[in-house]
Amino acid sequence: MNRLFLFACIFLLFGTLSCDNTEESPAPGDFPAWIKYKVDELSAKNGESCENVWVMIYEAQGKRYYNIDFAYSSCSNCNLYDEHGNRVGQSVLANQSETKIIDTRPGCVLPK
User: Does the N-terminal or the C-terminal CB of the chain have fewer CB atoms within 10 Å?
Assistant: First the structure.
């Protein structure tokens, strides 16, 4: 009985460890081209690596918005842009019930 229990535990352990995470981030090319320019501009302005610059994509009111800022920034959504790269105010994300975070990733994964 103990051997059967041990075998079942080992079988379940290997089964759970072998599962692949099928949920992946969209490919870097899914970002609009203007984002790379904004990431480079922000990192050069502050003398920081682009590894510290993060891009967060929101969806609100049927439109996409992009927040491009440093990971350690205390200012939430201070560099918010619409789908065309135009700067917008934080008020577009005011209704939290209709705002959804689509993706978050470092700026360095963007195509160079």
Answer: N
Helix (H), strand (E) counts: the chain: 2, 4
The residues pairing with 60 across neighbouring beta strands, listed in sequence order, are: 63, 99
pTM of the model: 0.65
For 78, the token pair is 């201070």
38-45 long-range CB contacts below 8 Å, 24 or more apart? Answer: 38/68, 38/79, 38/81, 38/85, 39/68, 39/107, 39/110, 42/68, 42/69, 42/70, 42/79, 42/107, 43/107
Residue 68 within a domain: yes
Structure tokens at 64: 């996409």
Q: Which amino acid is at 17?
A: L
Q: Is residue 19 part of a domain?
A: no
Domain presence at residue 64: yes
Indicate whether 79 belongs to any domain.
Answer: yes
**Best mean pLDDT range from 6-10, 71-75, 89-93:** 89-93
What is the number of structural domains in the chain?
A: 1
Domain span holding position 73: 30-109
